[in-house]
Amino acid sequence: MSAPDDVPLTVLGVRVDLPAQNHALLLLTPAGDRVVPVWVGAAEATAVALVLDDVPPPRPLTHDLLLSAVRALGGTVSCARLTGTEGETVLGELVLADGTVLDARPSDAVAVALRAEAPVLAPPAVVEELGVPAQEHDTDDLESFRRFLDDVDPEDFA
């Protein structure tokens, strides 16, 4: 369940680390001082990118189906939450408004939360452990990253 001191994170986008083709979900703290990268699979990266780019899939994806099922059963998504790490693996959960907590990969929880317009949260200790300092004053890198996000297509992740 979410805790009162959880940090709300903004989903900046998905980045592809070349040449290895590793995908990272980038989450930003409210102060903009830390970025929390979460390594995800290509399919999950695509699912997140589609929502961020407001591109409806031709048929419902698994995350759309899950959200439809939750709603059909009278539920509401409260939030996606990063909960910690086990080795190199980031742990997550999807929290429903009735208090039900579903163990989930962070990428899946975020993909569903974005579709439900629910927040992405993490305890301060997780943000501290996973976060890296944001480059506050390097506007060239920031502009380059924004151009990357503007020009990236979901097909780039396939």
From TrEMBL:
Matches recorded under Pfam families: BFN_dom (PF02577)
Ranges for domain BFN: 6-134
InterPro entries: BFN_sf, Bi_nuclease_dom
Recorded superkingdom: Bacteria
Protein name, entry field: Bifunctional nuclease family protein
Species, as recorded: Micrococcus lylae
